[in-house]
Write a structure and sequence with these properties.
Helix content is 80%, strand content 0%. By secondary structure, it is mainly α. The longest helix is centred in the middle third of the chain and has 48 residues, at 126-173.
């Protein structure tokens, strides 16, 4: 032990830079870890602040004391009756409150977006309802994407790193047609939209630009169908009048068309 300590002291005395560099590496690692932790807390604080602002906006723009979140068509008709006069008198405030509620659902993967899309058609009409829902749905999906990237990515990579790496390699092999694949998933009921929002940030090859473009385009057909159904809310008898077999066939056909460029490229490669 005495010889070991003597040798160690000699190395420190005559090779101090070696130990200084080792210490610097440890310090840099700890500093980087601390920065990442601080960044996570900052992100969490921003999320809490934004949610608080959204809730305040909703409280000030909608008569929430009389409202209940719709779960059925009858609930939706009741909400429509309560909001119809308010919307006619305060159109901008109503659209702002609606947008905040919709983004909140999309951001935190809370069910209910379908009925709210129908409500948009009933309250704001086809054109305004379609534009509003398309915009806030894309923003909400993007919020969910970034929350998953900030808070969920490390956890998934810790337990499923090999699987994520395998899928990322597959995405790299088909990188020229990622928009088409995402459009297919958005248009067809293979995966729910919230699952696509959460999973997409896990793959480095799938950029946010590609995600946003495919999201904005892929949700438009279904949005148009649901908003149009809302313009005929009084005539709807059941949910099957909105989500019909015919509608699903049309959306699946559009999803297959989105895959056509990739299929042709593979066929003639």
């Amino acid at each position: 032990n005495a010889e070991y300590m003597g040798g160690l002291i000699t190395q420190i005395a005559f090779r101090p830079t070696r130990f200084m560099k080792a210490g610097d590496r440890v310090f840099r690692r700890r500093a980087a870890s601390a920065r990442r932790g601080f960044a996570s807390w900052q992100a969490a604080s921003i999320v809490v602040l934004l949610v608080s602002v959204v809730l305040v906006v909703i409280a000030r723009t909608l008569p929430i004391a009389e409202l209940e979140f719709p779960r059925t068509l009858d609930d939706l008709r009741q909400v429509h009756r309560l909001l119809r006069d308010h919307t006619d008198k305060h159109a901008v405030q109503s659209m702002t409150g609606f947008a905040c509620v919709y983004m909140l659902l999309q951001t935190f993967c809370i069910p209910g977006s379908l009925l709210l899309t129908v409500l948009a058609g009933a309250l704001f009409g086809m054109v305004r309802g379609f534009v509003l829902v398309s915009l806030v749905a894309s923003i909400g999906a993007s919020n969910c994407y970034w929350m998953s990237r900030l808070f969920g990515r490390k956890l998934v990579l810790k337990f499923f790193a090999a699987r994520v790496e395998q899928m990322d390699a597959l995405l790299l092999a088909h990188s020229e047609h990622l928009v088409g694949y995402l459009l297919f998933l958005r248009l067809t009921p293979i995966l729910p939209n919230f699952a696509i929002n959460i999973v997409s940030p896990l793959f480095p090859r799938l950029s946010f630009t590609t995600f946003f473009a495919a999201t904005a385009m892929g949700m438009m057909p279904a949005t148009a169908i649901y908003v149009n159904a809302g313009t005929q809310l009084a005539e709807l008898q059941s949910m099957s009048d909105i989500v019909s077999t015919r509608m699903m066939v049309v959306l699946c056909s559009m999803g297959l068309l989105a895959l056509l460029p990739a299929a042709l490229a593979k066929r003639f490669a």
